[in-house]
């Protein structure tokens, strides 16, 4: 039996509480089993829930009720209106989920969306979950963001920085490290024996032989040479405008991209509903839906006119479960 997945609170004024309820309704009969580290008051008694002492109790109750490890919000929660006074609950939920995975009580963590600027206004110093989780695992700098969907996997080499900073911080060493981490994760967590990795250029036409930029020759090309010398199947640098086409995508298992939006725009355009954000390079499994807090459509749990689509969260929970089984060599 696989351990349950820990689902975090997310921003309580976003769609996280509703997603937790919708996901439990969708998965209660089939699994994977998960429990929510959240405030039960937000469930409005719209679904059955049961407070549990810890993850080991989740399996027994899952088919009858959403298992909840209580995390109390300090300020009143108004859907659509985030409140930085609830940042401590948001952060505590993530920290507790990580502890459960580190102790082996949970198989992985799936995070509900947070609003980065709300946490920042409460003093939180990380730009997102990805960097915070690396710090909690004492792996700062080793975190790698992958977005995975049925049609595409993408990995940005630089993550939550301005475009200017992304270009300035691009190095051969970082491209090599991110590509090696991706190669390893595709083997251990996704069951791909010989991963094929496509490396994106940075500039239009991948620099057009230096006429439109030189990073392909000075930074990206040398990284590809190092990776090939280590036996990896890497290709590129490819012109970024064509490498995500339907004919190009079957040629690789993941695209290594130079900055956040080069990676995330094609994936979210192709597969917003089923895209999953995965943090690799850490000793724990972490997945997340590919969307944010969606404050514009947040409302009370259980309302009949909800527009919230739980598909991406369902994909994230299923992927966390499948990755943990691959890790254990049990990929049934
Ligand atoms: N994993 C995360 O924690 C994460 C990921 C992305 C964005 N964010 C945060 O979310 C906040 C809002 O970001 P944004 O507005 O750019 O993106 P968003 O994904 O929250 O919303 C974009 C649009 O998609 C819609 N949408 C999103 N999820 C949906 C769902 N499940 N069902 C139906 N419609 C859905 C929204 O209503 C909105 O119209 C920001 O503060 C950002 O930092 C967090
Ligand atoms: N960059 C992600 C996205 O746009 O989907 C998102 O901001 C999530 O980041 P974290 O997982 O680091 O919170």
What report would you give on this structure?
Its EC number is 1.1.1.262. It comes from Gluconobacter cerinus. One of its GO terms (cellular component) is cytoplasm. It catalyses: 4-(phosphooxy)-L-threonine + NAD(+) = 3-amino-2-oxopropyl phosphate + CO2 + NADH. This is 4-hydroxythreonine-4-phosphate dehydrogenase. The protein has helices spanning 16-27, 58-61, 87-102, 116-121, 129-136, 163-168, 172-188, 215-229, 260-271, 311-328; strands at 5-8, 34-38, 49-51, 66-70, 108-110, 144-148, 153-156, 196-200, 233-238, 254-257, 276-280, 286-289. The longest helix is centred in the last third of the chain and has 18 residues, at 311-328. Helix 2 links the parallel strand 3 and strand 4. It has 332 residues and is α/β, with parallel strands linked by helices. The protein folds into two domains: 1-142 and 282-332, Isopropylmalate Dehydrogenase; 144-281, Isopropylmalate Dehydrogenase. Helix 7 (172-188) crosses helix 8 (215-229). It starts with a strand and ends with a helix. 4-hydroxy-L-threonine-5-monophosphate binds at residues 128-130, 264, 277, 288, 290.
Tags for this model:
332 residues; alpha/beta; Isopropylmalate Dehydrogenase; binds nicotinamide-adenine-dinucleotide; binds 4-hydroxy-L-threonine-5-monophosphate; cobalt ion binding; magnesium ion binding
Give the CATH H-level superfamily of the largest domain.
Answer: Isopropylmalate Dehydrogenase
Task: Calculate the terminal CA-CA distance, rounded to whole Å.
Answer: 11 Å
Rg over alpha carbons: 20 Å
State the helicity in percent bands.
25-40%
- Choose one word for the global shape: globular
Would you identify the CATH architecture of the largest domain? 3-Layer(aba) Sandwich
Quantity of strands, as a count: 12
* Count of DSSP-assigned helices: 10
Mean pLDDT: 96
> How many discrete domains?
2
Oligomer classification: single chain
Give the SSE string: EHEEHEHEHHEEHHEHEEHEEH
Q: What class, by secondary structure content?
A: alpha/beta
Low-confidence stretches: none
| CATH topology call of the largest domain | Isopropylmalate Dehydrogenase
Main beta-sheet annotation? 12 strands, mixed
| Spatial order of strands in the largest sheet | 3-4-2-1-5-12-11-6-7-10-8-9
Pfam family, one: PdxA
Organism: Gluconobacter cerinus
Pathway: Cofactor biosynthesis; pyridoxine 5'-phosphate biosynthesis; pyridoxine 5'-phosphate from D-erythrose 4-phosphate: step 4/5
Catalytic activity: 4-(phosphooxy)-L-threonine + NAD(+) = 3-amino-2-oxopropyl phosphate + CO2 + NADH
């Amino acid at each position: 039996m696989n351990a349950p997945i820990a689902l975090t609170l997310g921003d309580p004024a976003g769609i996280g509480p509703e997603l937790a309820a919708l996901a439990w309704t969708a998965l209660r009969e089939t699994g994977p089993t998960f429990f929510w580290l959240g405030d039960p008051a937000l469930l409005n008694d719209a679904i059955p829930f049961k407070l549990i002492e810890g993850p080991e109790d989740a399996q027994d109750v899952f088919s009858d009720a959403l298992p909840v490890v209580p995390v109390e919000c300090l300020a009143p929660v108004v859907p659509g209106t985030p409140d930085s006074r609830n940042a401590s609950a948001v952060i505590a939920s993530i920290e507790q989920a990580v502890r459960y995975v580190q102790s082996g009580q949970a198989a992985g963590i799936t995070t509900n969306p947070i609003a980065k600027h709300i946490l920042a206004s409460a003093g939180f110093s990380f730009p997102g979950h990805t960097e915070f989780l690396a710090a909690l695992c004492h792996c700062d700098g080793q975190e790698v963001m992958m977005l995975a969907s049925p049609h595409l996997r993408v990995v940005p080499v630089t993550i939550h920085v301005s475009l200017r900073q992304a270009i300035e911080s691009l190095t051969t060493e970082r491209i090599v490290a991110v590509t090696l981490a991706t190669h390893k994760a595709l083997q251990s967590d996704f069951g791909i024996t010989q991963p094929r990795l496509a490396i994106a250029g940075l500039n239009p036409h991948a620099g057009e032989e230096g006429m439109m930029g030189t990073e392909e020759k000075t930074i990206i090309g040398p990284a590809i040479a190092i990776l090939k010398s280590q036996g990896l199947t890497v290709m590129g640098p490819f012109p970024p405008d064509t490498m995500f086409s339907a004919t190009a995508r079957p040629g690789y298992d993941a695209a290594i991209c130079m900055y956040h939006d080069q990676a995330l725009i094609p994936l979210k355009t192709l597969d917003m509903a089923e895209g999953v954000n995965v943090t690799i390079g850490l000793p724990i499994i972490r997945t997340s839906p590919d969307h944010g807090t969606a404050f514009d459509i947040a409302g009370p749990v259980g309302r009949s006119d909800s527009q919230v689509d739980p598909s991406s969260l369902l994909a994230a929970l299923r992927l966390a479960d499948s990755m943990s089984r691959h890790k254990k060599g049990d990929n049934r």
